[in-house]
Design goal:
Layout: E1 11-13, E2 18-20, E3 26-28, E4 32-34, E5 39-40, E6 57-58, H1 66-75, E7 79-84, H2 95-109, E8 116-121, H3 131-144, E9 147-149, E10 152-158, E11 163-168, E12 174-178, E13 181-183, E14 188-189, H4 192-195, E15 224-226, H5 239-258, E16 270-277, E17 280-286, H6 306-322
Parallel strand pairs: 4-15, 6-13, 7-8, 7-13, 8-9
Antiparallel strand pairs: 1-2, 2-3, 5-14, 10-11, 11-12, 16-17
Length: 338
């Protein structure tokens, strides 16, 4: 089994316990932890590259694009604004909704919301996979007058005519809608050099590392583990998930190196801080059961709250830099999102 992908880039040879780096250096390992993150597949959204960052199309899924998103939102006084979410796992799945609510709240405060038609295209059958949080978000979209198109994705951007092609998830219907502003979100997958390796799920176009969702151990190569967004575990891809996965992987790697039984398990915990206004936030915490998994004591986080917004605005960045990035996250009680 070869170590190099078809494009000649670095790759894996798990049969011989080797990794090839970008400079062609080969590194052997006893245990391998794969944690490369996730890639943005802009090329999978036809037409968007021709207009991204100008003519009313931007995205918060790009460091250079986020300021342009804000400029376009501030400059909009009337017309149609479309917020989309692609099918399949993406990092911080709540982000496509967050920016819609922040934009709507800004337009409300500026007195122009009544002149703007907001359309949200979601591939899911509901606002959120956990009913308790979906109920709150249903109230939010009603408050802003957002037209939510469920089980619908944007399949093409037509910048010349400023139109979008909307396709149903079943694939049996399409429609066209004009836009004045589009917040674009690209489909996402494991990095190509992971996707084409023997570590990915056989036949899976997204290329996720094929792991047991509880132990994070590879299902075919017991000396390989995955941590974070590139793994196949069906949790929401957030920083909160990685925070909970990390101690599980650490202990299981130690046990694997000692030849002992793997017995630490990750329960699928993830957290999504969903900002619903400039001063309100809903903290959605859940696990593999798709039920609320509360970690913040004495506070009802299943509703929009001002103090939760303060946590997002000030608390989480502080905890990220001073705890998470210093390897102390497992001792921090508050939830980290994305």
């Amino acid at each position: 089994m070869g170590i190099v992908c078809a494009d000649g880039h670095s790759g894996f040879d798990p049969d011989n316990k080797l990794v090839r780096l970008a400079d062609d250096t080969e590194v052997g390992y006893d245990v391998l932890v794969v944690a490369p993150g996730i890639q943005l597949d802009w090329d999978q959204l036809p037409g968007v590259s021709d207009t991204l960052g100008r003519d009313g199309v931007s995205s918060n899924y790009g460091l250079d694009l986020a300021p342009k998103t804000w400029d376009m939102i501030r400059g909009m006084k009337k017309g149609t604004a479309v917020f989309m979410m692609p099918a399949g796992p993406i990092k911080c799945a709540g982000a496509p909704q967050k920016i819609a609510y922040l934009a709507a709240d800004h337009w409300r405060k500026q007195g122009v919301l009544k002149n703007i038609e907001i359309v949200m295209a979601l591939p899911t059958p509901g606002m959120f996979g956990v009913p308790e949080f979906a109920k709150v978000l249903e109230q939010v979209v009603t408050r802003y007058g957002i037209d939510v198109r469920f089980e619908t994705v944007v399949s093409e951007v037509k910048p010349d005519s400023k139109e979008l092609v909307l396709k149903s998830m079943s694939g049996d219907s399409t429609s066209t809608i004009g836009y004045d502003f589009l917040h674009a979100v690209p489909p996402q997958s494991a990095p190509n050099w992971v996707k084409c390796s023997p570590l990915s799920i056989p036949g899976d176009a997204k290329g996720w590392v094929d792991i047991d969702k509880n132990t994070m151990q590879h299902v075919r190569y017991p000396d390989v583990f995955a941590l974070g967004d590139a793994g196949s575990s069906p949790n929401s891809k957030t920083g909160a998930a990685i925070r909970k996965q990390a101690p599980v992987v650490v202990q299981n790697v130690i046990d694997q190196l000692k030849g002992q039984e793997i017995n630490r398990h990750y329960d699928g915990y993830a957290s999504c801080p969903i900002v619903t206004a400039r001063n309100k936030m809903l903290l959605a915490e859940f696990d593999y059961t798709m039920r609320p998994h509360k970690t913040v004591p004495l506070v009802n986080t299943q509703k929009e709250r001002w103090d939760m917004y303060l946590l997002k605005r000030y608390g989480l960045p502080f905890m990220y830099w001073h705890f998470l990035m210093k390897g102390k996250a497992m001792t921090t009680p508050a939830a980290f999102g994305s």
